[in-house]
Design brief:
Number of helices: 0
CATH class of the largest domain: Mainly Beta
Structural class: mainly beta
Shape: globular
CATH topology of the largest domain: Neuraminidase
Radius of gyration: 30 Å
Helix content: under 10%
Distance between the termini: 82 Å
Largest sheet: 7 strands, antiparallel
Strand content: over 45%
Number of strands: 54
CATH superfamily of the largest domain: Apyrase
Number of domains: 4
Length: about 750
Amino acid sequence: MRNRFVWAAVSVLFPLLVPQPASAAPRGGGISLAVTLGTDPTEGACGTDTTLSATAGDQVNYCYLVTNGSDETLRFSTLSDDVSGTIFTDQPTTIPAGGTYQYNRLAIATASAAPVSTWTAYDVHPDYVYTDNSAGAADTIFAAGFDATAEYAFVDITQTGTNLMLNDDDYTVASIGFPFSFYGHTADALTVSNNGGMLFDQGTRGRTGYLSPNTRTIPDRLLGPAILPYWDDLQQDYLDGIGNVFVETQGTAPNRRFVVEWFNLPVNVLGGGFNVTFEAILFEGSNQILFQYLDVDCSNATCDNGGAATIGLNGDGTHAILYSYREASVGTGKAILFSPTDPATYIATAQATLDVGAPVITVDPTSFSKTVSAGASTTDTLTIGNTGNRPLTWNVGSVGTRSHFTPVPRFALPVGDPAQTRIGLAPVAPSAKRPGTGVRGPLGVPAFAADALNARVVSFDAAAPSTLTADLDDQGLQFLSGDFIGEDFSTLYAIDFRSFQLYKVDTATGTPTLVYLTVPPDGVSADGWIGMAWDASTSTMFAVTAGGRTAVSTLVKLDTETAETTLVGTITGVGDPSNGTVIIDIAIDPNGLMYGVDIVTDTLVAIDKTTGEASTIGSLGFDANCAEGRDFDDTTGTLYFSGWDNNLSEDIMYTIDTDTGLATPISPIGPNADAVQYSALAIARLAGICSYPVDVPWLQYSDTRGSTQPGDTSPVTVTFDASTLTPGDYSADICVNNNDLTNRRLPVPVSLTVQ
């Protein structure tokens, strides 16, 4: 018997299938799991140890070997552990009876851990079947404890349920009141949208995200797990009394039901305007889902009886139950009951221990100051030490003194009206939306950004941004936030403003790869993600949301591998009392200080990244609005800002003085600055003065590279050679590049006076 091998990685996926020898394990009982660790990243490599010592930054190869001891073929699997969370869900993994299956995952060693891994295998994919009352059959549509004989019995909760008070294209998280399983995920809350559907996700809270009014058929990869009784463009304004959405949990355990009623919502179809009422009911224990329709006549052939709607259940990009798509399939008195299939399920766990250590570099002295006669030379010793618990590898180079860019003359513009502040895009006439040039040339400060208005990714020189160096397609996604991680400029992490989906964007092609939906923390009202910034000092990605009827911005930490978020806090202390606070994008300097721009007051603010508390630095000097981006050039410490000038109606690149807040314009961005809005600005330059070493002829070293064991030191003789120098003062930096991840490029300043 032959089995398949699948190689998967955190950063690289190898879809290679190779045979594995059949296991001799006896059949019948279920599955077993073994997890071993190794450092060989070769495809198919599998370590032999369950405990591994590694150095921070090493690639670790997690090897999972599943043995199927049952009497049936298992075709789908889910893998998770109690440290990383879910690794994959319901992935096709054919494991014949008596066979084995190997899965490999590459991860970067960051901290010691002993995760317990759980492998769950199924004979068939978790799915649903449905029955309806179209043939007059006596369907059992209610769980025990309710009317078990009724074929259709609409549950009106408008007098007893909770009014969610949604507006048009609005949504909110609602508690189910009991655990509910859906396509292999279990949650006790979900997101209810006024557009006739609910978004579902794994965890103890619902998925907070936007359900577009633009319907699609299912299965749909980008939509994610969703319950769709009548997905359409439905109008609602609770303040004006136009439609309402109600929720209520009824009954007692273990036979409770969760009812969501979309009541009297107009269908936004040309010529329509008549309202529809329908509901979805989730049943405890059975995990059944019932759709019922009280009134779906909108007096228009386009939308009557679901003619413009998507109806069904979406699991992922492969699995879904489509009842109808833009088909008049439902009417008054219609009931559709979805019942989950019952796959044979087998579970196994295993534990592996990763012991992670790290070198810690020291240098003595931390600077040199020398005086030497012209034509002479002198020497001294640079001592490189290692106080960590892993070997330190290093090399020594040098770099001349660098300066910031020459300042551009400033001009000031009137500060805007806070009441005119917009979250999103500035209005631009369709005729003005012209493509960029695609011209390529040398880059001084290489930068990437998303043109949110025209749905594309571009690159340019931030110090001379009027000419684009690349114009890439981003497949229609609207990125208002994005940044690189560390020193990897091949991948831009960005969040689509409307769908809340996190993507990895290939900066060579603009091709986006979906990571998952970003879920704002509990209690956060988010209209969209509007800022991201990588903090190299703590190896953390931060992100900012904006939402609420009085604008509120919230700071969170974002896991870019899982899309999970952790609340830091509401950004307080800035903004306008009447109009709130809207922090459009954030930037973090090489020292770990966080900055943002509040477009309500048009000011630069400093943000405490541990609490979200902020303080005003000063006015930008112009009316900044809509989609924006900002990032530091970490090599020079210069803060760049791509901002829409509301008075000039152009997108302009600025530098911002972090002491005063004043913005200095460089030039409009691209050839059509009136027809673009650049956000998610990310500069692709290494941090620190030692990032780009060059030869300094008057500095020489006895050793240019070496390895220092834990607790040991390595002396390097430094020669300060003035044989070719004329009298004067000289400065440079000795650059000690090493594998201490917290201090990879350590500068040692040198001043030399030649007499």
